[in-house]
Amino acid sequence: MVIRALLVTIAALLLAGCGSTDDETSATTETTVPTGTTGTGSSPVLEGAATDPVVVEGTSTDISLLTDVRAAAHDGYDRVVFQFRNGLPGYDVRYVERPVVADGSGDEVEVDGGAVLLVRMEPALDADLTQESAPRTYTGPQRFTPTTTAVAELVRTGGFEAVLTWAVGVDEERPFLVSTLENPARLVIDVKSSE
User: Closest Cα to residue 167, out of 94, 104, 78?
Assistant: First the structure.
């Protein structure tokens, strides 16, 4: 019995070691379940999701530095993740009317999809202004189309006066949930893609 338990434990550790650590490649790799989900296949996907704005004030005066933006399809929802160093900023996630305009310049920004979910993060930037020549901390694309069901496009619409803004084009106005994860700090937006 002891040997069997030991073998089961070793097998579990090996499987865990082989698993992906990227929360966008597999819905089962997170150690926490986003707010509003139950973590079981038998319950509704994104229970409690809504189309109402989600606003959380930042708790730090340090500027959060964006290091990654990614999105992936999961069973019943699309996940968009903004990853930071220096902790999480405050955020305001809401559907907005078109036209979407760039922070600072006010220029109109085209965003694919039937609806636009605007993600405003503060204090946050994607370049480290404390370093000489202000090196970019996020070097990925400023506009991209992920392989997702409901999310059509992600577009950076501004980084101005410690306010970082991205537009998430969605095929239509769909319920969403916002949660946060740590180590590294991540702002997670799950957009419902099926009933």
Answer: 94
Domain 2-192 = CATH 1.10.1040.10: no
In this predicted model, what pLDDT tens digit does every residue of 121-173 receive, in sequence order? 999 999 999 999 999 999 999 999 999 999 999 999 999 999 999 999 999 99
Angle formed at CA 108 by CA 172 and CA 80, multiple of 5 degrees: 45
pTM: 0.79
Output 137-145 pairs: Cβ under 8 A, ≥24 positions apart.
137/65, 137/66, 137/67, 137/85, 138/65, 138/66, 138/67, 138/68, 138/69, 140/68, 140/69, 145/112
Q: Residue type at 171? A: D
Q: Which of 44, 66, 40, 61 is nearest to 139 (CA)?
A: 66
User: Each residue of 112-128: pLDDT tens digit?
Assistant: 999 999 999 999 999 99
What is the distance between the alpha carbons of residues 107 and 123, in angstroms, rounded to a whole number?
Answer: 22
Strand partners, 186: 83, 181
Q: CA-CA distances (angstroms) from residue 173 to 3, 7, 31, 33, 151? A: 54, 49, 29, 23, 10
